[in-house]
Amino acid sequence: MRIMVQGTSSSCGKSLVATALCRIFTEDGYKVCPFKSQNMSLNSYVTDEGLEMGRAQALQAFACKIKPKAYMNPILLKPTTDRKSQVIILGKPYKNMDAREYFNFKKSLREKIKEIYNEIEKKYDIVVIEGAGSPAEINLKEDDFVNMGMAEIANSNVILVADIDRGGVFASIYGTYMLLEENERKRIKGIIINKFRGDKSLLMSGIEKIENLINVPVIGVIPYIDIRLEDEDGIVELNTEYKGKIKVSVIRLPRISNSTDFNPFLFDEDVSLNYADDPQEIEDADIVIIPGSKNTIEDLRWLKEKGFYEKLKEHKGIIFGICGGYQMMGKIIIDEDGWETKKGDFEEGLNFFDCVTYIKGEKVLRNVEGIAFGKKVKGYEIHMGETENNKNPFVEIHSEGKVFYDGDTKDFKYFGTYLHGIFDSGEFREEILNIVRKKKGLEYKKSEEFYIKREEELSKLSKIFRENLDVDYIYEIMKKDD
Fold it and tell me: pTM to 2 decimals?
C-alpha cells in the first residue's frame, strides 16, 4: 500500500503530515517506509553507511521506528548560492549545478527514481510518499518526478495539504486543483486543512463549499500544534522562544545549515533560544552559537559585514562554533579546491583559535560517538575541509575502531567542533548549561536525551492527528489503490 502527501505550497506542513502518518501506520502494526524523491534542504542527516539524506526523511524514519537510509531521499539539493546547489544522489555528492543545468539533468533521473521506489515497495507494507513545493508549479511540470509525476510512478492516490494560518486556504486548494490536468485531479482523494486556530464550526460552511466545487472531501482539520520536531528544510522560519533565564543565541547565517542542531535547547525549561539577524541581539546572550553553513567563506564575510565580529570579540559569555562555525573561529579558511567559492579563495577567520581550515578533498560523512568533558556524545560529521593546528581538542571521537580528537577550546569560553548533534546528548548539554548556571547563580538542572524527547513528541503528534483526521478513510483509499 502507498499514499502520497502533496501540498498547496512550500512549508504548508507536508513533512509533518507525512511524519504523523508514518507513526500512525507503524503504531497500527505495519512495516512503513518514508520516501521523498527529491528534497531541497540545508538540514541533512548522515546514515550509518556514511550517506547524506534530508533531515525530514530521517525524522520520518524515526517515526517508523527504523533506521534512516539514503534511498528514502535519493536526490538531495543543498543550495550553495542563490543560483547553485550541490546535487547529492543516493547519499553521495555528485556535483554543483545551477538551476538550468539541473533542470536539463533531471530528465535522466526519472528511471532511477522508479527503480529505487519499486525496490522499496517490495520491502515494506506501506510507503508514505512526500511531494515537494506544490504540484501546480506549471513551469516545473515537465519531466516531474517529485509531485504528480511521482504519484504516477508509484500509482498512488494523493492527500493535498493546505495551510490555513497564512490565509486564503480555500483559494489555494481550488487554485491548485484547477491547475492540474484531469488525470492528476483524479488522484487527489482528500484534503487536509493544516494549522487551524479557533472554532472549527465556523469553518464548516467553507468546507462544504470547497467540497462541492472540487468534489473531494476534507478529511481533516489539524490544529496549530506546538510540536518540537526538526524543521522541514532550510526555508522554514527559525522561531525565537523566550521562556528562561539563560539566553542561547544562534547567528542566523544566510546559508545556515543543520539548524536542527539546536532543537534540544527547546526542552530545557530555563533556556530561551534566539535566532539573531542583528549583532545587537547577541549582546545579552549567555551562549552565542555560530552554526554550520553551506558556504562558510561567504557567510564569514557576511558575519563581518553585519558587525557580528566586533560584538563577538567583546562578548563576555560562551561562544560555540559547530562545523562551518568552528572553521570561522580559526585563523583562516582557504578554499583550495574551489568547492564553495573559487580555487585559492580565502578569508581571515575570527582568530579565537589558532587552527587553519583547508577546503579540499572529498566531503567527510560519518556517524560518530565519543566523549566530551567526560560526557558521552553522539552525532555526525558532514563537512568539506580539513582543520589543522587545533591545539586543545575537547571531543574524543570513536569511529570505525579508531580514536581521534576533534574541535578546539580555550578558557572555557570558546568551543568549536565538527560534531553535529552534540547538544542531543543530555549530559553534554547539561554540562555547558551548568557552566552558565553557576556563573549566574542559578540552580543546576538536568537535561534529557533528545531522542527520548523526540519519541514523546512523535507520540503526541500521532495522538493529535488521530483525533483530527479520518485515518480509516486513508486506509480505505490505500486498499482500493492496491
Answer: 0.88
